[in-house]
Amino acid sequence: MTIELRSVSRWYGNVVAVNDVTMSIGPGVTGLLGPNGAGKSTIMHMIAGFLPPSRGELTVAGQPSWHRPAMYRQVGLVPERDSVYAFLTGEQFVTATARLHELGDPAATASRAISLLDMGAAADRKIATYSKGMRQRIKVAAALVHDPEILVLDEPFNGMDPRQRLHMMDLLDKLGSEGRTVLFSSHILEEVERLSGVIQVVVAGRLAASGDFRAIRRLMTSRPHVFTVRSSDDRLLGGALIGRPAVTAVELSRAGLQVRTSDYGAFGRDIAVLARQHGVRLREVLPADESLESVFAYLVAS
Amino acid sequence: MSGLVNPTVARITLRATLSRKRALLFAIPAAVLIVLTLVLKATHAPSRAWPSHVLGTFGFSVLLPLTALIIGTSVLGAEVDDGSIVHLLATPVRRFSVVATKFGVATGLTIVFAAVPELIAALIAGGGSASPLGGDKVGLVSISTSQFATGLFVGALACSVIYNAVFVMVSVATTRAIAVGLLYVLVWETLLANFVSGVRLLSVSHYGLGIAGGFVTDPALQAGLGVLTSVVMGIIVTAAALLLAVSLLSSFTLKGEPA
Fold this sequence. Notes:
Strand order of the largest sheet of chain B: 1-2
Number of helices of chain A: 9
Oligomer: heterodimer
Number of domains of chain A: 2
Order of helices and strands of chain B: HHHHHHEEHHHH
CATH class of the largest domain in chain A: Alpha Beta
Distance between the termini of chain B: 40 Å
Radius of gyration of chain A: 22 Å
Structural class of chain A: alpha/beta
Distance between the termini of chain A: 32 Å
Shape of chain A: globular
Number of strands of chain B: 2
Radius of gyration of chain B: 19 Å
Structural class of chain B: mainly alpha
CATH architecture of the largest domain in chain A: 3-Layer(aba) Sandwich
Number of domains of chain B: 1
Strand order of the largest sheet of chain A: 6-7-8-3-9-10
CATH superfamily of the largest domain in chain A: P-loop containing nucleotide triphosphate hydrolases
CATH topology of the largest domain in chain A: Rossmann fold
Largest sheet of chain B: 2 strands, antiparallel
Number of strands of chain A: 14
Largest sheet of chain A: 6 strands, mixed
Strand content of chain A: 25-35%
């Protein structure tokens, strides 16, 4: 079960949102990454069957996705928009979805999907009372209720806390290793640290990079970074940080510490350990100059 | 398998429509009609003129379209506007069945909130004598209460069906369905259709009046169209609107990049 894009373009009037993208997404987990406005959503909408390509050919499981509701028997879709039937309970929502798919035992299939997403405890509550992360998860439960071969998730990590994010990544990995085709989009590369698989990077409507997740992540984390750090004792912390190999410069200013590092991942681990060792309380660790465009531009350049 | 009406869609639609605050508006036009009828009944001597004007003209070109507008645009339009329709459309349910179900629910609610109040108001207003010229005392025609009420009720049922087909379609076609619908009701149905005779052929309220005219010969109703014309045109408009709605819904798109 694959998703194929061949020279797909999409424009709105004079504005080209997606420019001549060709990619093939097979079984396993694939991340579609890129900054906001890069054309990710447009690609996701076209794959999901909610937007026709202006040019090119796009097929899901061998047939065009546009104007083909029968496709949803094989495809589960998690839309980005948060709007769900908020007046239903989580269980009613997933059960109704099972009924819309005309599944044999809607209640049983729904409760299986709900427990897969760890939503059993909140299933009896109205969706209106859910947090954003819980809404995401109940949407995924609904998308999985008919056991689809292909799962398409638009920005699934939005609004999730770190624990929920890890849980979701594990779930996606599991679904991918079962041989399903799992495609998700995200605009934050760091969000998807745990996933294995393939990523496709879209910048300015074009496919800018594609390849193995780990290789691209390594590129990501080993690029130079500047962080602004505020703590209960900046001088003490700065002194300790400069002793680490990952840190190349430390500047003490009134606004806090400016720390230059050559390794994003190592710095993150180091600062936590050092702060604890020296009894320094961290108030803020902010990546400076962290516009996503610069991150992706770096990726594209390498 | 998926028939014409999908019970799951119907259930969700009914709950969604009645749980919105807008649902409180449904009963307002009907309440106005019944109160108006009671007041007129109490203050006027038995006459044919006012019941036909209030229940015919006001009922069919204001009460019914406004109620149908509020209901017809909310059964599907609200979901289209907030994007929750994606959850429904990302299933293999036939688009025709989605539209048919939404239309069915809207028509049912409109009958409850507009056609039945018309019937009640007609029963309150009662029958009487009518003059063929709509003036007084020359060549009176006698109309029984049941005749009058049947005519208006059947006409109102027809209006509920046709108006909802139109408004369900409008709600898929544009996100400004209420504004467009209101303009249509005020300009086309209440103004033009009642003053420009040619417009009647394309006026839902006149189809209703024409159909009512098949049950009660009341010149004061000012049915400009014959029964047959009204029925045929009503069916054509309903079918065309629903088919257009299905086609628009099948091409529902998610647009652009959220910022």
